[in-house]
C-alpha cells in the first residue's frame, strides 16, 4: 500500500511579496508534483530575511514530506538561501569542485570574466547533493534531513523548470512510492457556481470517497475538477470517465469542453466542422472578442475580421445601423445590437456575425441604462439571437465577462445548428 506524500512549496524573495514579479513557479511545481502522485498541501512566500526563512522551513518540516524551495540562489549579498540553509541544517558552506568546473565552463563559453562572486556559486551546504543546472550558474540542491526531502532551486522559471523536469522529478519518483492522482476537468459556461452546485448536488453526494470534486469559478464560467486517487491509473481513468458520463445529462447545455480546451478553441472546431466563417463587431469590448478568437492557431481559416465600432458614425457607415434606430433606441439597445451583428456579417461577407454594445464603465451610465448594461448578439443566416447582460461596476471585469458570454452565445447558437 502506497502512502500519501505531502509537499510544500516555498518561494523566497522580497520582489514576490512586493508584487514586483508574478510567482508562476508554485503553480507549475504543484502541477508537476501532482502528476507523479505527490500532493501539495501548502504554498508559502517569504522575503529575504534569515529568521523568516528559518521559521517557514521549521513549519514546513511539520507539515510535509517534501519541501521545494525556489529563489535566493544568486551571487549577490541579498541572495541568502544557501547561508540560511547552512544555519538550518547546522553545516558549513563547502566548495563543490564539480559545480566550480561547470560554472567556470559556463563563463568561458560566453567569453565573460569569472569573478569571486561567480565562484561563490559553487559553494554549497556540506550536506547538499549537487543537482546540475544546465541553463545557469545557480545550483540545484537536494537534502535528506530527518526523514524529509528538501530541494532548493533557482527562482528563474526556465532554469527551475529544467532542473525539476530533468533531475528533481526523476529522483523524487525513485525516492517515494506514491499513489496515482488523476484529474478530469469539466468546463462550463453560462451558469453560476451556486446554480451549478444545486443542479448536480445528487450526483456530487454520490461520488465515491476516493473521487473529490472542486468548483473553480472564473469570468463567465465554472470549471469542475474531479480528482481521483488510487493505485491503478487505468482504473482511475475509467472511473472518471464514468462520472463525467453520469453528470453530463444534468449540465450538457453548459459544458463546452474538457481539460485543456478553451471556449475559443471549441468555437474554432465547431466553425471548421460546419465550414462557417465569422466576423465580429465590437463597441464596449474594443477588440477583446477578436483577440480571444485569434489566440487560437489556425483561426484565419474561419475568422475574417472585426470592426471596432466605438462611435455611432462607424456603426452607421460601416455596419449599416440605421440612424433612426440609434436616435430612437440608442447605441445600447436590442435593436442596435441586432443590426450590428447582421451588419458585420453582411459587410465582411461571413456566415456568422457577433456583436457587443454596452456601458462598460466606470462612467456613462443612466438611470435607465446603468453601468454594466450590455447587449450581445449572434447573427446566422436564418436568425439573430440577442441577449441582455446586467453586469457590475468594474470596467475590466465587464469587458472580460461580456467577451465570455458572447463567445458562449456563439457556441450555443452554432451548436444548435449542428444538433438541430
CATH class of the largest domain: Alpha Beta
Output the number of helix runs.
16
Broad structural category: alpha/beta
Q: Kindly state the mean pLDDT as a whole number?
A: 94
Number of domains: 3
Number of strands: 17
Layout of helices and strands:
Blueprint: E1 5-12, H1 14-17, H2 25-35, E2 38-46, H3 50-63, E3 66-70, H4 81-89, E4 93-95, H5 97-109, H6 116-119, E5 123-125, E6 129-131, E7 140-145, E8 148-153, H7 157-175, E9 180-189, H8 193-199, H9 201-205, E10 211-218, E11 221-230, H10 233-251, E12 255-258, H11 263-274, E13 278-282, H12 288-294, E14 303-308, H13 312-317, H14 323-329, H15 334-348, E15 352-358, E16 373-380, E17 383-390, H16 395-419
Parallel strand pairs: 1-2, 1-3, 3-8, 13-14, 13-15
Antiparallel strand pairs: 4-5, 6-7, 7-8, 9-11, 9-12, 10-11, 15-16, 16-17
Helix pairs in contact: 2-7, 3-4, 11-16
Outline the structure in words:
This protein is α/β, with parallel strands linked by helices. The chain has 3 domains: 5-175, Molybdenum Cofactor Biosythetic Enzyme, Chain A (3-Layer(aba) Sandwich); 180-258, Alpha-Beta Plaits (2-Layer Sandwich), CATH 3.30.70.2860; 275-419, Maf protein (Alpha-Beta Complex). Helix content is 42%, strand content 26%. The protein contains 16 helices and 17 strands. The chain has helices at residues 14-17, 25-35, 50-63, 81-89, 97-109, 116-119, 157-175, 193-199, 201-205, 233-251, 263-274, 288-294, 312-317, 323-329, 334-348, 395-419; strands at residues 5-12, 38-46, 66-70, 93-95, 123-125, 129-131, 140-145, 148-153, 180-189, 211-218, 221-230, 255-258, 278-282, 303-308, 352-358, 373-380, 383-390. The chain has a 6-stranded mixed beta sheet with strand order 2-1-3-8-7-6, sandwiched between helices. Strands 14-13-15-16-17 form a 5-stranded mixed beta sheet, sandwiched between helices. A 4-stranded antiparallel beta sheet has the order 10-11-9-12. A hairpin with a 2-residue loop joins strand 7 (140-145) and strand 8. The two termini are 51 Å apart. The mean pLDDT is 94. InterPro entries: CinA, CinA-like_C, CinA_C, CinA_KH, Competence-induced_CinA, MoaB/Mog-like_dom_sf, MoaB/Mog_dom. Residues 8-175 form the MoaB/Mog domain. It comes from Spirosoma taeanense.
Amino acid at each position: 500500500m502506497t502512502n500519501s506524500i505531502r509537499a510544500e512549496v516555498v518561494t523566497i524573495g522580497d520582489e514576490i511579496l512586493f508584487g514586483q514579479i508574478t510567482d508562476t513557479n508554485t503553480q507549475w511545481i504543484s502541477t508537476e508534483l501532482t502528476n507523479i502522485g505527490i500532493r501539495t498541501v501548502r504554498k508559502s512566500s517569504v522575503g529575504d530575511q534569515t529568521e523568516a526563512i528559518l521559521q517557514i522551513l521549521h513549519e514546513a518540516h511539520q507539515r510535509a514530506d517534501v519541501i521545494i524551495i525556489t529563489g535566493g540562489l544568486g551571487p549577490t549579498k541579498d541572495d541568502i538561501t544557501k547561508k540560511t540553509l547552512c544555519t538550518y541544517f547546522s553545516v558549513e558552506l563547502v566548495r563543490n569542485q564539480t559545480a566550480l568546473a561547470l560554472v567556470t565552463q559556463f563563463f568561458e563559453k560566453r567569453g565573460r570574466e569569472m569573478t569571486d562572486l561567480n565562484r561563490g556559486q559553487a559553494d554549497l551546504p556540506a550536506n547538499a547533493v549537487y543537482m546540475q543546472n544546465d541553463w545557469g550558474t545557480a545550483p540545484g540542491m537536494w537534502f535528506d534531513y530527518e526523514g524529509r526531502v528538501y530541494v532548493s532551486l533557482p527562482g528563474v522559471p526556465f532554469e527551475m523548470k529544467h532542473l525539476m523536469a530533468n533531475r528533481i522529478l526523476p529522483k523524487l519518483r525513485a525516492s517515494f512510492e506514491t499513489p496515482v492522482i488523476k484529474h478530469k476537468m469539466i468546463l462550463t459556461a453560462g451558469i453560476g457556481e451556486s446554480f451549478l452546485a444545486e443542479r448536480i448536488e445528487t450526483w456530487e453526494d454520490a461520488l465515491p470517497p476516493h473521487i473529490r470534486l472542486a468548483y473553480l469559478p472564473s469570468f463567465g464560467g465554472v470549471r469542475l475538477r474531479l480528482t481521483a486517487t488510487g493505485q491503478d491509473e487505468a482504473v482511475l481513468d475509467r472511473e472518471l470517465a464514468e462520472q463525467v458520463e453520469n453528470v453530463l445529462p444534468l449540465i450538457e447545455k453548459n459544458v463546452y469542453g474538457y481539460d485543456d480546451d478553451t471556449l475559443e478553441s471549441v468555437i474554432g472546431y465547431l466553425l471548421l466542422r460546419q465550414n462557417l466563417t465569422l466576423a465580429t463587431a465590437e463597441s464596449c469590448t474594443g477588440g477583446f472578442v477578436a483577440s480571444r478568437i485569434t489566440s487560437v492557431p489556425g483561426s484565419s481559416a474561419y475568422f475574417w475580421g472585426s470592426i471596432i465600432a466605438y462611435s455611432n458614425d462607424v456603426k452607421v457607415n460601416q455596419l449599416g445601423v440605421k440612424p433612426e434606430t440609434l436616435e430612437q433606441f440608442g447605441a445600447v439597445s436590442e435593436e442596435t445590437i441586432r443590426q450590428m451583428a447582421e451588419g458585420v456579417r453582411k459587410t465582411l461577407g461571413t456566415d456568422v456575425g457577433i456583436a457587443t454594445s454596452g456601458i462598460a464603465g466606470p462612467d456613462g451610465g443612466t438611470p435607465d441604462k446603468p453601468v454594466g448594461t450590455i447587449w450581445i448578439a449572434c447573427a446566422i443566416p436564418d436568425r439573430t439571437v440577442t441577449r441582455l447582460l446586467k453586469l457590475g461596476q468594474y470596467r475590466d471585469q465587464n469587458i472580460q465577462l461580456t467577451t465570455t458570454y458572447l463567445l458562449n452565445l456563439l457556441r450555443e447558437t452554432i451548436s444548435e445548428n449542428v444538433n438541430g
